[in-house]
Design goal:
The complex is a heterodimer of chains A (about 260) and B (about 250).
Chain A lengths: L7 H22 L10 H14 L1 H33 L1 H14 L4 H12 L3 H12 L1 H12 L3 H9 L4 H39 L4 H10 L3 H40 L1
Chain B lengths: L1 H10 L1 H17 L7 H10 L1 H35 L1 H15 L3 H12 L3 H25 L3 H9 L4 H38 L5 H10 L3 H29 L1 H5 L1
Classes of the chains: A mainly alpha (about 260), B mainly alpha (about 250).
Amino acid sequence: MTPPLLRGPVRVAVALAVVLALWQAVHLAAIVPERYFPGIPAVLAAFGDMIASGDLLSGWALTFSRATIGLIAASLLGIGLAILSDLSPVFGRGFRYISDVLQPIPPAAFVPMAVFSLGLGTKLYAFVVILVTVWPPYLNGSAALEAVSPVQVATGRMLGCGRWTLLWRIKLPSAMPEIFAGIRYAATISLVAVVVSEMLSGSNGIGFMIYKKAFALRTADVFALMFVVGLNGVLMNGLVSLLRRGVVGWHQKMMERQE
Amino acid sequence: MNESRRIALLGLLVPGAVLVLWQVVAFAKSSPLFPGPIEVTQAIIRNWHEIVSNLGVTLMRAAAGFALATVIMVPLGIFLGRVRWLGEAVSPVIDLVATLPPPAIVPLVMLFAGTGDAAKIVIITYAAGMPLIMNTYEASHTIHPMFSRVARSLHLTRFETMLLIDLPSSLPMIATGARLAVASSLLVSITSEMLLATNGIGVYLQRSQENFQIGSGLAGIAFISAVGIVINALAYRIEQKLLFWHYRR
């Protein structure tokens, strides 16, 4: 197989340049009315204006911190539940019924039902984000804890590890790479959940801003905000990767050596 | 076998305990805004027809969006995988676009297509299309070189190679993408209704909230969950049936 021509950041930069060039071409060709499809300079100007007024930064900070805190809480909860499921197979099986029932429900559906009990503030975001974000770390974690090789477990027992030491020193470390794969997937979900909640019943944050601007037909602003949403995803992924390198760096090094 | 059945039965105690706890809290609060499982069950019976007809609309749109996404994205993904230079150029663009969650494009689509069926189907197509094209492209461009050589020695044209070699050998990964796409088209169908209200189960949920009928709303959510479980299980079954040759290996 031929290796890819471009790698990593260069690839992304080239892709971005291509998209922007195409965009500007469509704009200049005036296929779509200016009002619906502003050029890149107009979008940049809108971006600049929103930064200058401070709206963008404060909205972004709210959205991003909601998503991050939700993700951290959901990951810890997911890992905790995975450990519980490992300790008690009955709980694990029972909790699977609950996860099967809750998983197909979109975050947007929870928002209107929870508004009255939880209000429009932090509690609502925490509830919605955790309820939809907890599954990937939990499911990956419980599957990985179950799949720990019996040889490793037996070795631990032979070395005199008790139940908890076995869990802490052997099972959890070997499940961590899988758990991080789940957290990475969960990161995207948590951002989506926050943006949707803000759109539906927020009074601030990026999601609320996009919705407001769209109804005001401020198209350039909408495009600029969509760009911010995309960037948020990239940023979140970067953070999770960084954390993963810190926690399971040994695993990545081992995989590279095997290749 | 017996042991696992025992665990499965004992496991039912966990959701049972949650339901009991929920009912106790609801009883203690005794507020119409915090209904318990009994009220929700009553609401399911009461609103059966309304929920089913709304859910039907939602599912129709989800199916249309999913079908459209499959028809567009699978051939496109195979084409990009076979025509190497084009794939190299386009795939980072796909990666870039994929960072945009479907709800974020809702306001944009609204500007072009309004709030009707067309707008919602476009959003669902986008949501279902992303996993489909990513998996199809990934599968068809990492195809084993031997297959390409076989195609060449049989003097297949490029189109025949795509149809007879690339498509079948990419099917297992396309199926994985399709399963993700099925789940997300249902999710996004509901979300798009809540953001661009006209009809469907998403609108039903919001109307329940506006009328302070939280029990009815939760009944709707219960339906969504049940339908989601059935559809996802069905998608899995169909995949196993169609790809029996892959799983038998």
